[in-house]
Write a structure and sequence with these properties.
Length: about 150
Amino acid sequence: MAKALAVLTFGLCIALSTFAAAADKKQPDWAQLTPEQQQILAPLASDWNKLEDRPRKKWLLTVKRYPKMKPEQQQRLQTQMKDWAKLTPEQRAIARANYKKLAKQPPEKREAVKQKWQEHQQRKQALSNSAPPLPAGPSGDKAAPPSAPASPSR
């Protein structure tokens, strides 16, 4: 009985140490990524070495799925990475908190928020697609585009 308990304890120690070693595996720094990984993760380049292992692992799993994504999905992912990279650490913390808060909401509430967000994105897209009007000149007419400076004569 004591021998069986000792063998079981020894086996558990080995299993736990193996599990701990696998869990502590350090994710690669930016320079250790393949050129393909660097290309896909380019928006995160400046922050990559500051990320902890868990988010690095998540992004590397996303990179594995990337070639199988439809072009629209790839473009969406690239846009999301660029937008995320532009956020300050404080804005990222707020975004994470809002995500966690929303995840706790009932499905109908989440769907309503999603619908409002999509409407906001569509309005934003429509505004960016429309050309801004030219400012009015002193006579009230539309201002002419500025002309190129005259070239100096020899």
